[in-house]
Design goal:
Chain lengths: 69, 193
């Protein structure tokens, strides 16, 4: 889980602290390229082919984690 | 100047604006969810769009491209440019609009942006691309940063863009070198999708 958070911090390139409860829409850095980067990371780092629609339905960092665990 | 540009990628086709896309563009540009940061303080009608197009056809300093999903021929957004200056080799990138929500964050959209920028940097031999973003639009500022744009550290090139329809904007730039470095990273992302 910690490793996932680290990867997300890197992916988002954000300075503020993020946790599993962080709401994606409240993050300025959660944009369409972060979205694509997440899909790529899910595949490359976790071997998961995540559907864009599932990512669109995710509300928090924790929801994203649930897509790859 | 070319007016029938057509670019083809693995997932998306990019075509220059033409009357067959007017209905889509009008719908997207009139959607209050999408147009709150656009430079369009009026409702777009077919008549206005047609008049704009007639001028567009004679104006080599601007372009507007439509993204089309290759799998289902569905148009889903636009990207374009204005203020092309052949002496300075600069232009303003803009008219970015994702009119169909399900295409946000997709490989189709990402590839579309790459195709257009590849074309513009090469065809027009662009040295520096400019964009102007409303200061409140934090997500787009973040997105453009990821695409290689940074605040213009020099004298503002397009001061008339800093206040548009009562909205304060800032000017960002991206050189050709920066674009190609970023491009490499983004293309790698697409390879994992």
């Amino acid at each position: 889980m910690e490793q996932f958070i680290e990867k997300m911090v890197d992916l988002l390139d954000c300075e503020e602290e993020i946790t599993m409860d962080t709401v994606l829409d409240e993050l300025d850095e959660w944009d369409s390229l972060s979205f694509v980067s997440f899909l790529a990371m899910a595949n490359a780092a976790y071997g998961k082919k995540v559907e864009p629609s599932d990512v669109r339905n995710a509300e928090t960092i924790g929801d994203l984690y649930n897509l790859i665990k | 100047m070319e007016r029938n540009v057509r670019l083809e990628g693995k997932y998306v086709i990019v075509e220059e604006i033409s009357p067959k896309y007017f209905e889509n563009v009008i719908e997207w540009r009139n959607n209050p969810e999408f147009n709150k940061f656009l430079n369009q303080p009026y409702k777009l009608t077919l008549e206005l769009q047609q008049k704009w197009y007639e001028k567009y056809l004679k104006d080599g300093t601007q372009g507007l491209f439509v993204f089309i999903d290759k799998t289902n021929d569905k148009p889903f957004g636009t990207l374009g440019f204005t203020d092309y200056d052949d002496n300075e080799k600069i232009m303003i990138e803009g008219r970015a609009l994702v009119g169909e929500l399900e295409y946000r964050g997709t490989k189709e959209l990402t590839e579309g942006y790459l195709l257009v920028n590849d074309y513009l940097y090469k065809k027009y031999d662009i040295a520096t691309m400019y964009i102007h973003v409303v200061d409140q639009n934090k997500k787009v500022i973040s997105l453009n940063k990821k695409w290689g744009y940074s605040l213009n550290p020099n004298k503002t090139r397009f001061p008339e863009e800093l206040l548009v329809n009562g909205l304060i904007q800032s000017e960002y730039i991206r050189t050709r070198d920066t674009y190609y470095k970023i491009r490499e990273k983004i293309e790698q992302l697409l390879n994992f999708l």
